[in-house]
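forwarding from the other thread:

> can someone predict this with magnesium ion?

sure thing
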Amino acid sequence: MRQLTRDHARRRELEGLVFDAPQSTRIITIANQKGGVGKTSTTVNLAAALAMGGLSVLVIDMDPQGNASTALGIDHHADVPSMYEVLVESQPLGEVIQRVEEVETLWCAPATIDLSGAEIELVSMVARENRLRGAVRDFLASAEGAEGEGPRHLDYVLIDCPPSLGLLTVNSLVAAREVLIPIQAEYYALEGLTLLLRNIDLMRQHLNPELVVSSILLTMYDARTRLAAQVAEDVRTHFPEQTFATTIPRSVRISEAPSYGQTVLSYDPTSSGALAYRAAAKELTERPVA
Ligand code: ADP
Ligand code: MG
C-alpha cells in the first residue's frame, strides 16, 4: 500500500518531466567488478529515462556479453561494427553508433562477442588504457559538424562495464569523469567495494586524475527485509554525499524488459521499477559534479 501511494505521487511528479542539460557532456562509467549487481539494468534504464526527459544520450557497451545492446534492441551479431573495431582497429566511434528505436535521442555503440578478444589484443597496444578515451574525445570534438545520422551533440555518455577489473573496465574508467557504482542491497555488497575503490584510486593516481565516484545507487532493494535496510544504512554512512536518495526496488518488470529488447521505461512505464529509474535520472541531473 505504501508502495502504491509512493508510486502514485512519483508518477504525478515525473509526468512530462524535462531534465536540465549539463553544460558539457557528462561521461559516466557504471562499474562494479561483481556480476549481477544491476550495472547493465542501471545503464540502459537511466539512459532511457534521461533521453525521455529530452536529453541526448549515448550508451557505450563495453561488455562482450552485449547485454546493454540486447536490452536496447540493437543488432549486435558478430558482423556488426562494434566497440571491438573502435578499440582495436581505431574505427571512429561515430561509425558504429546505432539509433535506439525506443527513444528519439538515445544511441548505442554495441558490443559483439569479438570484444572478448579485445581484452587480450589490447595488452600489446600503445597507450592501451587510453583507447576508449581517445575515441570518445574524437567523437565529441567532431560530432557537431559530422554528416550522416548520428547524434550532433550528447548530454550524457553512459558506459556499461563487464564484471571484471581488466582492460575493458580500465579503458572505461579512463574515458570517464565520473563513476556510478550500483550496489545490490545484500550481505556481501560492501566487501567488493573496497577493491573497486582501491582500483579507482589507482586510476586517479596514474591515468585519470579527474575521476570521481559521483554516484552510488542501491539496486534490487527490498524494503521489507532488515538486511537491505542495514546495507543501505551502511552505504549511506560511508558515502553520504554520493548515495542516491532513490533506491531501485526488486521488480520483475526490470528483469523481463530485456527479453523484449526494451528498457523498463517503455516495457512498463508506470511500474515501480520504471518510476524508480526516472527518479534516479532526475537525481543524477540535479547532482552536477564540480
Ligand atoms: P550486471 O550488469 O551487474 O551483471 P544486470 O543489470 O544484468 O547486472 O542484472 C543482473 C540480473 O538481475 C539480470 O537478470 C537483471 O534482469 C536482474 N535485475 C537487475 N535489476 C533488477 C531489479 N531491480 N529487480 C529485479 N531484477 C533485476
Ligand atoms: Mg552487465
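The chain is about 40% helix and 10% strand. thats all i got for now
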